[in-house]
Design brief:
Layout: E1 13-14, E2 17-18, H1 32-37, H2 71-74, H3 79-89, H4 95-133, H5 144-157, H6 167-182, E3 186-190, H7 196-205, E4 210-214, H8 217-225, E5 231-238, E6 242-243, H9 245-252, E7 257-265, E8 269-272, E9 282-285, H10 287-292, H11 294-300, E10 305-308, H12 312-321, E11 325-329, H13 331-337, E12 340-343, E13 353-360, E14 370-377, H14 385-395, E15 400-407, E16 415-422, H15 428-440, E17 443-451
Parallel strand pairs: 3-4, 3-5, 9-10, 9-11
Antiparallel strand pairs: 1-2, 5-6, 5-13, 7-13, 8-11, 8-12, 14-16, 14-17, 15-16
Helix pairs in contact: 3-4, 4-6, 5-6, 14-15
Amino acid sequence: MRLGQWRPHNPLTQNGKSYRGFASLLWLGYITDVFQGVSGFWPYKRLKRPPSSTQAKPHTIGATMRPPVTESELRPMGKQEAEKTSAKGQSADGGDASEALDRLRASIDTVDARILEALNERAAMVQEVGTLKQGSRVSPVYVASRERDLVNALRAANPGPFPDAAIAPVFREIVSATRSLEERVRVAFLGPEGTFSHEAVVTQFGSQVDLCPVTQLEDVVKATERGESHFGVIPLENSIDGAVNPTFDALMESEITICGEVMVRVSQNLLSQSGLSENIVRVASIPQAVSQCRNWLRHNLPEAEVVDTSSTAAAAQWASEDEGVAAIGSSIAAEAYGLKFVEEGIEDRRGNTTRFAVVGQEMPRPSGNDLTSAAFTVGRHQPGALHRLLEPFARNGVNLASVQSRPMKGKPWEYVFFIDLEGHHKNENVGKALQEASAVADSYKILGSFPRALAAPLGAVGRGTDQ
């Protein structure tokens, strides 16, 4: 991509505007194939297909609606027929081709109307669910595994041509919008808006939530603990930089639980008012982001002054106020502050991912594809103590996904071992392994059992420390 050229950062972005919002789903005409193709899974009845062309009546959304295209007009053409149609389209005014195009657009409008009908049918059902839940504790309003399994099932049932990669963001917004009719979910994160934690919130919950940005990571945990937010989103680890230690310290001292995880693909973008490199005098961002892009900056903007800011969001705000400033930050920062892309993906190393934890008051039930996070302490003067701690997991057939150590607060040279293992603590083999391991540990705590995240989507962005 040429420097200074702007292009959308993902398939659902066009002309510099994000099409993630609920209302914009009507623009995605092909999604009706998903609705029609998975009626056995979708929580409402299969929509009836429109009558045949000989019986169809014009379906109007506005006064200028035309009749839909007939089946004969949509069937595949032979070579000779295609040549005849092409010749007709090259007539003086192109009338035949224009009329066919108008009829096809009218049919797309008809499909859009069916999508809207289906969305409202789903919304009405969610409202009924909310009514049944009133005054009871039947189930939480948000269950990460249910939404993950919904996306997986829809991808498996998708016949195309609608792209599989677009199913997650489209249905995330559908679920987010209809869930807000039941109860508006409040989510705390390390702010301000436009940071990468904000990106993680939208990736997990959609846009129809109440954002609760705070200034310190510990405040995310406290806000969730006090009930000021339903959930919090905090960074756990980065695939290059490693663990975010303050997160583990906060989890050890809190009674909240990890109830989900979010994988966010790392990408750094250069953002400015104009999107033109020749206008850039200064480049602003946090030191970590600048360090990640140092080679790109040296080769492409060697004369630009680099200025440190307190957050990527602060850099984006400055860029929105000064045409000579470009910010290094996320695509959501571009949306939040009305900036254009000078260049996308300017980081020197690719394949970086940040893993976030979703924390809340309740531990989810087993979903069949879970992780459990636990913390253990062992006596450092006992030979073989760590071996005895880990051996029960191998004996009970439990795979360990991660083992990390962290110094204990107030106890120099003693460590807490944080272990991620596959399965839910209520699974028989996992529960037995945890019980046997706890018997040889000085202390232990289950930080959470939660559904595993979907793989980090291409085009989502994030960064390990300025979350």
